[in-house]
């Protein structure tokens, strides 16, 4: 895929993710009788608008972000259809609906990918062993028919769970493997096999191949569900690395970095590109639920405080908090975008 097509595809994908997110807020707001003054995709100057019966629908020039402007989101209002006059549980549902729709979108994209991949290969990758490599340390105890259910204290539901845990292995010590055989669960320790990739990076394996499950509604939905959960886990692991110092703010990517990543993924195939789009949808959904000011999770946090103490924090003060959070988020976005541009021109990114 050419650079131009990648950028166009990225804009379309971001637009769909944002539209679905704001649509979640919009639908639930309407369900609970909240007035929506404007439903916008994009930010900045308006390039198209249409006044509906109750809502102004607009498309804005900058293809980043969007909003669902509800009546009196951060202020008191005498109107019964104001957001702040709805019950706390209703407001929580409205606030969480955007991220929820992103997660659903990500899941549906994964369903498409899992189905397409299964049709190509004739089945769905399982965690049941087909054969064991004789030179692997795990060959001491594994045999065909065993089903892997855990590694290093982490549950294994799909093959990606196993690969993800092994990707964090540092090459020293042993790993713990849990598997089921004839209805019984066993736990053994082993030293992973080391394989060197083309770029010289070491890669670690248990040392076995797996069987394929038949293609049916249950296996597709199960695989898709756990792959979506794996995506959520990956987001939290990345956030954890930021907090522990294993990764810095300079390692974060903004729009330019994401487009670069999409360009790289596009070279590996259409299915990988679509899968990456699903990951972006899940990533944006999870990030929006973080309890940070200006994000949906931050607003949900204030609603929880109101439910616990039986009274809301003054709307004006809450509004100030979200405004400050919004400014900080914009500053962070500008910083990571600048970082992306620097890496682009110094060869750190390819577009």
UniProtKB/TrEMBL annotation:
InterPro entries per the UniProt record, alphabetical: PDZ, PDZ_sf, Pept_M50_Zn, Peptidase_M50
Topology term for the membrane: Multi-pass membrane protein
GO cellular component: membrane
Classification via PANTHER family: MEMBRANE METALLOPROTEASE ARASP2, CHLOROPLASTIC-RELATED (PTHR42837:SF2), REGULATOR OF SIGMA-E PROTEASE RSEP (PTHR42837)
Pfam families, per the entry: Peptidase_M50
Protein name: Zinc metalloprotease
Lineage, opening ranks: Bacteria, Bacillati, Bacillota, Clostridia, Monoglobales
Family from the record: Belongs to the peptidase M50B family.
Gene source species: Candidatus Monoglobus merdigallinarum
Annotated signal peptide: none
